[in-house]
Amino acid sequence: MPDTAELQQHFGQPGSQLPGCGFPVAHLMVLFHAGTRLLREILASPLRTHDMSQVPQLHPALQPGDIGMGDRGFCSYAHLALLKLKGVCGVFRIHQKIKVEFPTPGDPASEGATACKGRLSRWLHRLGAMDQLVEWIKRKKAPKWMTADEYAKLPGRLVVRQLRYLVGRPGFRTKEVTLVTTLLDAELYPLLLALAELYRQR
């Protein structure tokens, strides 16, 4: 974009560029329709804008029954809860700070109160070897991108499904993917035939 004082002040530029040696750079947030690849919405924000502070502005474009899908940056309790209140399901790669554990079948000791490290949760039910239902528990403090009043309207608990699959494709840096979703029916949405393929389209 043009290197004007107004645009510099609003958007900023990468810290690696010396003053007077670079151009303003925007942070773009876009919403695509996965089936048609149609670009539905686009938001231009200052460069150092976190994704989650902008994503609620895209929610009006979603309708009940839609499925929201994205990478780790969009995986949070608050975001999944907001989508659920709209009647929209979510499929996101688990955030890197959340370490998901899958209990050993038939071992009560491994089916503890905490289903994943880095997230208040409770293990509920095993659906498959790497497929389980977990209850996420709402934290007391609201995330930075929500007001306290907005956060108070979210439910105190949220049942989600956690799944893991191997990528197994030559040339792919990622070897395994762990997803969290509010699509809870394992028969209607099997791991490899539905959810892994759906996420691959992202």
Uncertain spans, ≥5 residues at pLDDT below 50?
Answer: none
The number of domains: 2
Give the helix level as a range of percent: 10-25%
Strand content: 25-35%
Number of helices: 5
Structural class: alpha+beta
Main sheet characteristics: 6 strands, mixed
Radius of gyration: 19 Å
Taken from the alpha-carbon principal axes, the silhouette is globular
Please give the alpha-carbon distance between the first and last residues. Answer: 28 Å
Strand order of the largest sheet: 3-4-10-9-8-7
Let me know the average pLDDT: 86
Q: Tell how many strands the DSSP assignment holds.
A: 10
What letter string, H or E per element, gives the SSE order? HEEHEHEEEEEHEEH
Structure notes:
- The chain has two domains: 1-49, no CATH class; 63-200, no CATH class.
- It has five helices and ten strands.
- It has helices at residues 5-11, 51-54, 77-85, 148-152, 191-200; strands spanning 26-32, 39-46, 67-70, 89-93, 99-100, 116-117, 121-128, 131-137, 157-166, 176-181.
- The longest helix has 10 residues, at 191-200.
Which properties best describe this structure?
202 residues, alpha+beta, 2 domains, 6-stranded mixed beta sheet, two-stranded antiparallel sheet, 10 strands, globular
List the helices and strands and how they pair.
Blueprint: H1 5-11, E1 26-32, E2 39-46, H2 51-54, E3 67-70, H3 77-85, E4 89-93, E5 99-100, E6 116-117, E7 121-128, E8 131-137, H4 148-152, E9 157-166, E10 176-181, H5 191-200
Parallel strand pairs: 3-4
Antiparallel strand pairs: 1-2, 4-10, 5-6, 7-8, 8-9, 9-10
